[in-house]
Here is the input.
Amino acid sequence: SREAIPAVVNVDVEGPQINRHVYGHFAEHLGRCIYGGFYVGEDSDIPNEGGIRLDVVEALRALNIPNLRWPGGCFADEYHWMDGIGPKEDRAVMINTHWGGVEENNHFGTHEFMALCELLGTEPYISGNVGSGTVREMSEWIEYLTRDGDSPMVRLRKQNGREEPWKVKYWGLGNETWGCGGNMSAEQYAMDARKYATYCRNYGDNKLYRIAAGAADFSYDWTETLMKQLGHLGCQRVERPLYQAVSVHYYTIAGNWENKGDAKEFTTDEYYTTMVKAARTDELLTGHSNVMDLYDPTKEIGIVMDEWGTWWNVEPGTNPGFLYQQNTLRDALVASVHFDIFHKHADRLHMANIAQTVNVLQAMILTDPDSGALVLTPTYHVFEMNKGHQDAASLRVDTPAGLPSRKVDEAELDTVSISASRKDGKVLFSLSNLDADEAVDVDLDLRGGTLREVASRILTADALQSHNEPTALEAVAPRAHEVTATEKGLRVHLPAHSFVTVEGSVA
Ligand code: AHR
Here is the structure.
């Protein structure tokens, strides 16, 4: 059997804080994410408040979700917010051309989204329309949401039943403007980002955090163009920097964009390829961050990875435009590896949003379209088990003897991934064993403090393909796990394909 892997952690040496917003979420008007997922309408038999599903809210509240990005995605750049306010029966109907060509009745609009955020106890992240909108439209949306006192948009908001302005910090300047958000060149979009950002005003004490629409994958030149343009401002009175972050999108697929792979039927080889692709997030964030360092060495501008996660072929028999996919233990391990990488990049990564929260892509929750039954996915459990890392100080994990690894085509995959953090006198370790077949032990060598009241949980199942469904809600669910005290700290046993958390108070 394998030797235990030593992992040294100085529990008293705190690294950069892990921004809670890296545990962010994304809800687009796409398939059954909003309609049927979050929102069922006031007349539904499913318990709801103002049309918002209360079972979904309750499940998500257990994750402490820090922010919710809306209304897209590609949908954001064809969304006209004024269509989604006022009496529902008067709201304009449009066609959702990106996602299935279905009718969008605009019954879920600004007020409904802000009510959802209030129910979830989460911060809104609104993605504005650059592709088919106007500067004025975006500017007026911010006035409508956040301005106090008296003005045309404030009067309109009050007329629609909301006296007080809302607080909105996170604001997206378009989405994928190299593609569905306008097919622009980097130079063209950088000009637009400057122009739109100029008219995204701070009203009262509402201070916006503007996010420029970033690169696809490893397109570092896109990031570089946006960073360069930040420096060339004429007017001295304008707020600097004009945008506070640039985004990046990176999806994990096993195959290619024509055939991304099946969500539940996959081979062990496809599993390893998936994990190699997920692990490349480290290279991705390092690459974009290095480019940003050239223009912003003090790391003032953040990276917002506002779309990430697995993207599989849709479930057979479902609308191809709805991006509905199942979620297995493999997806959970993709998520846990992402979080270890996010924790490592805490100094530059300000936010990340998994795509998408309910019924779309790597979802936390799947709802049955007929019975309405709610299923928590394996990915949901990783978010829940890891929530103690939110706003915690990252702790460095050193593995002096190296990590076990395996060759996957041309790549070398570390099959163990570990991260740790400290907050409020508690330390949380996350450990993933990506090996499909072999168990491994990790010896946590703890320096600078000892751990008391240790509790551990494990997420695993017989097969990597295991998943939850209405008839098997807990096929993949966390269970209590035993760890062993050693002279130097703790021995943690990691069965094949498992995710384990260990938490304890530091003395
Ligand atoms: O998340 C699904 C889609 O993926 C988003 O709408 C778009 O931004 C990306 O291409």
